[in-house]
Amino acid sequence: MIELALVVCLAADPTKCKDVGLVYDNEALTPMQCLMRAQPEVAKWSEQHPKWNVKRWSCRPAGTVAKI
User: Fold this and answer.
1) 53 class by beta-carbon count within 10 Å (0-12 exposed, 13-18 middle, 19+ buried)
2) Hey, where are the domains in the chain?
3) pLDDT under 50 in the chain at which residues?
4) pTM of the predicted structure, to 2 decimals
5) What is the dihedral of CA 55, 17, 23, 2, to 10 degrees?
């Protein structure tokens, strides 16, 4: 299983950052498919969490990033 891993930082304090893992539910994706679907997922997460800025993202095996 693949997850979308985000590094996000507080908009009010960019020195405070954390990792967030978004797992694609019930989907067996390849890393390339994850990358192709990532941008809309990052945009959706950003809209739902306006106090945070996404600094970078990548696709990795699920479970390697703490869930928040």
Assistant:
1) middle
2) 2-61
3) 68
4) 0.81
5) 70
